[in-house]
Amino acid sequence: MSEPTIEINPIGVVESELRDPAAAPNQGDEGAPSAWLVFEAAVLEALDGIRAGDEVVVLTWLDRASRDVLRVHPRGDRSRPEQGVFATRSPDRPNPIGLHRVQVESIDGVRVRVRSLEAVDGTPIIDLKPVLSSEVGER
Amino acid sequence: MSEPTIEINPIGVVESELRDPAAAPNQGDEGAPSAWLVFEAAVLEALDGIRAGDEVVVLTWLDRASRDVLRVHPRGDRSRPEQGVFATRSPDRPNPIGLHRVQVESIDGVRVRVRSLEAVDGTPIIDLKPVLSSEVGER
Questions:
Q1: Which among A2, A88, A95 is the nearest to B8, CB-wise?
Q2: Is the pLDDT of residue A135 over 90?
Q3: Which of A64, A90, A138, B121 has the fewest CB atoms below 10 angstroms from its CB?
C-alpha cells in the first residue's frame, strides 16, 4: 500500500520577530508573540469573512523539521521516555505540518495579524480554517 | 513572493463505510461512523504512546476536493452568502487538508479505530497529533 505523493503550494508566509526555532516557544500559549500571516495575492478572495476576534487554525509547513524522526523525548526533555511522534506535537515527523490555534487581531488586505503564534519568521502557510464551536468546548 | 512546492507522502489511509462524499456528514459530530486509520508499516513506531480514549487530530488529504475554489456558500447552502474558503471548513480550497478531531477507540498494530470520522473510504492520512489541553477547554 503506497499512496502517490501530494503536492502542496504554500498560500503565504509567517512574518514574525521569532527567528530561531530553538528559542521559539513550543506552543503559542507559552509566551509567543503576535505575528503577521502574509497571504499570496492570488488567494485574497479566500480570506473574505475572516474578522478581527475570530479564532482560527493556521496550518504551516515546518520546513526546518526532520522528516525521518519517528520517536522523540516529549518536549525535548531527555528525562521523559521516548514516544512515537504521532503521540506528541514535535515538529519532527514524516509530514511536519504545524497546527496553530490563534485569534485574529486585525486584517489589512492579504496581511492578517494573529496573537501568540509560535512559528518562526519565514514559515510557509498552507491552510487557514475557522475553529468550530464543537472544537472549543469539552465534548 | 512564491514559495517552492512541498511534497507530502501519505502515512496511511482511512478505511470507512462512508463511500460517497456527497452523502458523508460535513462534520464528525453530525452522525459520522467509526472508522479505521490504517497506517503504513514504515511509521508503526511513530504510533507508540497513542492509547484508547485519547483525543487526537487526524490530518487528511481531501483528494476529491476542488483546489481552484476561493469562495463558497457555507455548508453548500445557497441561501447563505458566499464567503472565502478560509472562513469556512469547505473541503474545496487551495490545499484541501482535512482536520478531524476524534477519539481513539482501539489500536491493533498499524490499525487505529476512531469514533465519528466524516472522511470517506480511501482518504489519504498525512499526519496525526494529540489534542493539547489548551485546545480542549475555552481560552
A1: A95
A2: no
A3: A138
